[in-house]
Structure of TetR/AcrR family transcriptional regulator:
Amino acid sequence: MARPSRYDRDQLLDTALRLAAATGPHGVTMAAVAKELGAPSGSVYHRFPSRSALLGALWVRTVESFQEGWFAALDDVDPHRAARGAAHHVVAWSRAHPHAAAVLLHGPDAFGQPDWPADDARRAAANRRRVRSAVAQLCEALGAQDRMAAERVALAVIDLPLTVVRRPLRAGEELPAHAEQLAQESAASLLAGL
């Protein structure tokens, strides 16, 4: 009878997440994850056959964790409230999950996206399509019909909230107490004319 694995997938990914937040994507190696966890290298290779597989799984899991609440905020029937909620979520989630937020600020290419296993690449592509679809639906609900209006919506629910969190997180600082309010007010201001 095979001995049960002592280190599960989530433990390994949690360790990789901490390493990535502390050292950047380059610091996430199979050996570093094993050392940080106090596990033999074989435990990491048992779950992830390559560094690319580890990095792809880390990215996809982190993005999907973030997107769960972001999509939920956009489900609000009032599109202006949905936009404010999505902007708020970016900051609130980043505050609650600073290591994960730091990982996402690097972007998928820093995590070796071209080399990810096919399943992770498909999931990442599906996540991007879902974001584009959600923003398009919000544009429609707001009556944002031209390109500039659509850019305004994307800026309100994606780019500006990320800007609110980027500087403090990259500096290793806590987010200011007013960060969520700033993200919501920025979104509301941008979309006031729609």
The radius of gyration is 19 Å.
